[in-house]
Design a protein that fits this description.
165 residues, elongated
């Protein structure tokens, strides 16, 4: 256990040292340090792929933006137009949630059906597993198919194919 922990710690330290070495070997520039808001690229091999976009999050962001636009709108005409867009956006989000919930419920129903089948076959499955553990099948010779009558004979389906020719 201690040996494993030593390896984990050592590899972690080595990865950290590699990052420090890469930073030390980077060419020095005379410019001022980068502002805190600038994102620096990750060292080679340590970057992550971009996250896939989430349509629901994007719809919520758009809804938030529309809310800001509505509050900033000056005329009643602008507010009415933005309110219609908000209505459409909320409707789409709500419909998508209903669709997602229905899909999840259908998946759960399928899992429930599988669970019911497993429960119905519980005793039979346990007995079969115990029998298999106590009496495993004999190992087969390489090249012999399951349905061969005797070792070395061709499989029954191969005999049928040969007869058909």
């Amino acid at each position: 256990m201690i040996k494993l922990m030593t390896i984990i710690v050592a590899t972690g330290l080595m990865a950290g040292m590699a990052c420090v070495r890469a930073a030390d070997q980077a060419p020095a520039t005379a410019s001022a340090p980068a502002p805190a808001t600038e994102v620096k690229p990750a060292p080679a091999g340590l970057s992550r792929p971009p996250r896939p976009s989430n349509p629901m999050m994007e719809a919520e962001r758009k809804l938030t933006e529309l809310g800001k636009q509505y509050r900033a709108a000056v005329t009643d005409e602008e507010k009415a137009k933005i309110k219609d867009e908000i209505q459409n956006q909320v409707t789409q989000i709500y419909d998508k949630r209903i669709e997602t919930t229905k899909k999840a419920l259908e998946e759960m129903a399928a899992k429930k059906k599988l669970l019911d089948e497993m429960t119905a076959k519980r005793d039979e499955s346990i007995k079969a597993r115990v029998d298999f553990v106590l009496n495993p099948p004999a190992p087969r010779e390489p090249g012999i198919k399951k349905d061969s009558a005797k070792p070395g004979e061709p499989a029954k389906d191969e005999v049928k194919k040969a007869d058909a020719k």
